[in-house]
Design a protein that fits this description.
heterodimer, B: mainly alpha, 10 helices, 65% helix, 2% strand, globular
């Protein structure tokens, strides 16, 4: 070939550079023409309009965090399914193997998807796909409340209740 | 070399311009459609029918003061919207807008890059898009933004799996991951939607979730999270976030019409003699399909109420993923039966 052509991925690289150039240009032009009068009050965090309490970078319980782990598993298995899907219907492979290729591929895929579904069923059964309701804690009052005395009374009268 | 490079750069500029203009006018279309559905007039002051409204909005984004909160992580704060925008723009590189146009002895492909893993590339770039929201929401040091970002990431990773599985059934039928190949196989009226209606339903739902559109717009749910992940943003950076959402809508409409509705193919295309005319009509047909899907996005937004967070997870994991898995198994089995008995 006389003139080397840019490969398809080269075009994509060109496209990405175009995108980055566009962002830089837009942000730079904006910087040139917009006003800039910061003050301390303006630079505080807006949050919800009230004065922010504490820092947002603290640890808290994001629900469904187990899903992130299950996702990783699924995503890796998905990557394995993609090449399988491209060669699944290839006519040459089917002809070469005397029609056995399609059968083999489908059976293999069935086994693979069965294992995949098993993982999902496990997460489902374990309740990772549900909203985890917090355990209810009965409020404690700040007096010298003795639960064992009440339990004694309950024990005593529950026997009567059972007799009646 | 020079001519080829020039062709490509010219095409890249055109694709950028078209995506930006369509995204710009989607904002107007959204306001007009919502006005129509709610029996209002909508924006009508700037230009005839409000046609200059998006331009006015764009100019406003340039001229407004940009506030970076002093407690925010400055680098990440700027990086967030930039990643969102770049990933939104990057996807359009592999979309086949048309076939070929021949002029003065040269064939010019109307696709920037026909790579053999086209659909996988789209899938990968969409996954990177979640970083834009995550980084922006975390970097602005706002509790509501952080919650919005977390919701965005968990919903995107959940729906990505179902989306990938629905793509696999298309790849099985086509035997190729190249978008150009997938579209050219749906010649005439032989569209994939007739073979994969369930796959389309799953893909469409997931596309809504990946674009953070209603009913999946929990990351920017204004009733709970103030403004969601972009609460702290102002000026052009806010503009980039809002704009990338509309570009994403445009791109996912394009992917949907390319993968399931034949892309640039239209019925009776073999009866037109001139190939140039076919490909020019094809481009218009493709854009008509895209515009229909953009309208569909808006229609759904003003019709269906928002999900609750656990309902969203339930729909993704307990309905869509098993359905998509079943779809693959059924597609495989049907294809096997077809090979065995009808060959």
């Amino acid at each position: 070939m006389e003139h080397p052509e840019i490969s398809a991925f080269g075009n994509i690289l060109l496209f990405i550079f175009g995108g980055i150039l566009f962002i830089c240009l837009v942000l730079f032009v904006g910087r040139l023409i917009r006003p800039r009068r910061p003050n301390e009050e303006k630079n505080t965090i807006y949050e919800s309009g009230e004065e922010a309490v504490g820092n947002a970078w603290a640890a808290f319980n994001p629900r469904f965090y187990v899903i992130a782990l299950v996702f990783l598993l699924f995503e890796v298995e998905l990557v394995f399914l993609f090449p399988w899907a491209t060669v699944f219907g290839q006519q040459e492979l089917i002809n070469e193997t005397n029609d056995n290729w399609a059968k083999l591929a489908v059976v293999e895929m069935l086994m693979f998807i069965f294992i995949l579904a098993l993982g999902l069923a496990y997460a489902w059964k374990k309740g990772f796909l549900d909203w985890q309701k917090p355990a209810t804690v009965s409020p404690t009052v700040g007096n010298s409340f003795r639960k064992d005395l009440y339990d004694k009374v309950n024990d005593k009268y529950s026997t009567i209740k059972n007799n009646s | 070399m020079e001519i080829l490079l020039f062709d490509k750069i010219f095409l890249i500029v055109i694709v950028f311009a078209v995506s930006l203009v369509i995204a710009l006018y989607s904002t107007l279309a959204e306001r007009k459609v919502s006005a129509f559905l709610q029996d209002r007039i909508g924006p009508n002051r700037a230009g005839t029918f409000g046609l200059l409204q998006p331009v006015a909005d764009g100019v406003k984004f340039f001229f407004k003061e940009d506030i970076i909160p002093s407690h925010a992580d400055k680098a990440l704060y700027i990086l967030g919207p930039s990643i969102s925008m770049i990933t939104a723009l990057m996807t359009s590189a592999v979309i086949p807008w048309g076939t070929y146009i021949t002029f003065s002895g040269r064939q010019v492909a109307m696709q920037i890059a026909d790579i053999n893993i086209g659909i996988l590339y789209v899938f990968a770039v969409v996954s990177i898009g979640v970083y834009g929201i995550m980084i922006g929401g975390w970097g602005s040091n706002n509790k509501f933004s952080l919650l919005g970002a977390l919701r965005a990431s968990s919903q995107m990773i959940s729906y990505e799996i179902a989306m990938g599985l629905s793509i696999i059934s298309i790849v099985m039928m086509t035997g190729s991951m190249s978008l150009g190949e997938i579209v050219s196989q749906q010649h005439g009226m032989d569209w994939n939607i007739f073979y994969q209606p369930v796959g389309f339903l799953i893909f469409c739902t997931c596309a809504f979730a990946e674009c953070n559109r209603t009913p999946f717009d929990l990351p920017e749910c204004e009733a709970e999270l103030v403004g969601g992940y972009h609460t702290e943003y102002s000026s052009m950076k806010l503009g980039l976030y809002l704009f990338s959402e509309y570009i994403n809508i445009f791109i996912s409409s394009a992917i949907m019409s390319a993968m399931f509705f034949g892309g640039y193919n239209f019925p009776f295309m073999d009866q037109i003699a001139s190939p140039n005319l076919v490909s020019i009509i094809g481009v218009f047909v493709f854009f008509a399909k895209i515009i229909f899907f953009i309208f569909f996005f808006m229609w759904v937004r003003w019709t269906i109420p928002r999900f609750r967070y656990d309902q969203l997870m339930k729909l993704g994991w307990k309905y869509l993923i098993p359905l998509a898995l079943a779809n693959i198994v059924i597609t495989g089995t049907v294809m096997l039966i077809k090979y065995q008995f009808f060959n």
